[in-house]
Amino acid sequence: MKTNDELFKNVISHAKEYGFVFPSSEIYDGLSAVYDYGQLGAELKNNIKTYWWKAMVQLNENIVGIDSAIFMHPKIWKASGHVDGFNDPMIDNKDSKKRYRADQLIEDKITRYQKDGKTEKANKLQADLDNALNKDDLGSLKAIIEEHNIVCSISGTKNWTEVRQFNLMFSTQMGAMAEGSDEVYLRPETAQGIFVNFLNVQKTGRMKIPFGIAQIGKAFRNEVIARQFIMRMREFEQMEMQFFVRPGTELEWYNKWKETRLKWHLALKPDQSKYRYHDHVKLAHYANAAVDIEYDFPFGFKEVEGIHSRTDFDLSQHQQFSGKKLQYFDPEVNQNYIPYVIETSIGLDRMFLTTLCNAYEEEDLSTPEKADSRSVLHLHPALAPIKAAIFPLTKKDGLPEKAREIMDALKMDYNLIYEEKDAIGKRYRRQDAIGTPICITVDHQSLQDNTVTIRHRDSMEQERVAIADLERILEGIVGWKSLLKEIL
Q1: Which residues participate in substrate binding (predicted)?
Q2: Do residues 450 and 464 lie in contact, with contact meaning Cβ atoms separated by under 8 Å?
């Protein structure tokens, strides 16, 4: 039985071996906390984005999507509070010179207490951490670290500096000459691009409250402590939707979106026991309710998606700093007001990792006569990078030509792979490892009666079907419709 650490290492190794995720700039020894998505990773990532976009925009008549710029006017980040308040509490070990996030050091200690069965101690430490974070009490964070004998993982010592705040935004210069250029920021979130376009979308789309604006895009944070593979990166992608509502109705909509978003995750048929809600103990100053949807990764429960009731803070701030009115006239109540906002924000990279962790299995297929096993990704068929693999049983007798004929008929609608190398069993194993839902084998009987053998990934069962029925069968297994019906 593998430990969680061993399992996570195997997921990371599997992701690289099969072309899902590579360390960025690897031939130059890599770049810390930056990753590239390989040929299968790009497909899986695009499928996750498609699922989110279809569920959010296509299925909701009152939600539209935009794509705002990464560079925005620097005053936007002053208005949003990021210039003054987008900080993490950092602490250095004087012996190793290694820098840590103070709250994460304490969270790791809580996890160790829980694993050791010291539940009461873990709960007390969690309460102390929450209290210190609520008060922004950096001195208390250091006192907690010292009290619980938390040591540096490299030096093994407790020779700590004071805890201090570190701003996470990347800045750069915009302009032809360095001395005459303006300082701008790489956006640390995609939400502000939605807020500053609120009136543009509302007026051009003739949108009526309540309505939402969705966006998928890159964001950048100078994470000093980036860890756990693609869980926390410096360059990442977000899928966010800001839902604008009438003041006074925000908590009703907050509860609705809280349920809707968990339903989206569970429609993929994961182990439901690995998901939970975690209400925020410390609310942001602009929020009146906030919850995380957490997933039980091999390294513990961590946030995958957040749902926040942001009140009217964002639009009010941008109205104040820009000098432009960002109000909505509501004909139903015959008044102007600044809408309140419900935010749903999911990290695409975290969702990618959640999907891999959910899907990965090292399956023992041994019998009394023979030892056997396989590594398999039980991806939801709609998310699978390759929808079907097409195999001629042999490389002769007209079988490759027949297989290519089937491939040509289906590849306009589905991402397929053709393979004729190695024994059929080895080909099955390779497709299992990348999550391909079905394999289609063309044999000599196919030339006689236009039938093929379909082999299913999860059950490994096989059935004989007519070539003429393949399109219908594929649509039923890998099509978006069956998945989207789960969330209607």
Answers
A1: 101, 189, 236-240, 343-347
A2: no
Confirm or deny that 344 is annotated as ligand binding. yes
**Half-sphere exposure of residue 319: CA atoms within 13 angstroms, side-chain side:** 14
Query: Residue 232: pLDDT above 90?
Result: no
Q: Is 435 annotated as a binding residue?
A: no
Mean pLDDT of 365-373: 87
pLDDT at residue 179 in the model: 56
The H helix count followed by the E strand count for the chain is: 17, 23
Please state whether beta strands 340-347 and 235-245 pair in parallel, antiparallel, or not at all (unpaired): antiparallel
Would you state the pLDDT for residue 146? 92
The count of structural domains within the chain is 3
Tell which of 356, 382, 403 closes a domain: 356
Q: Using an 8 Å Cβ cutoff, are 26 and 175 in contact? A: no
332 marked ligand binding residue: no
189 annotated as belonging to a binding site for a ligand: yes
Please report the pLDDT score of residue 320 as a whole number: 95
Q: Any binding-site annotation on 420?
A: no
Residue pointed to by tokens 């906002």: 341
Alpha helices in 95-233 (DSSP H): 102-115, 119-134, 138-147, 191-195, 198-204
Determine whether the annotation assigns residue 349 to a binding site: yes
Does residue 291 sit in the same domain as residue 146?
no
Q: What sections of 54-101 are H helices per DSSP?
A: 74-80, 82-85
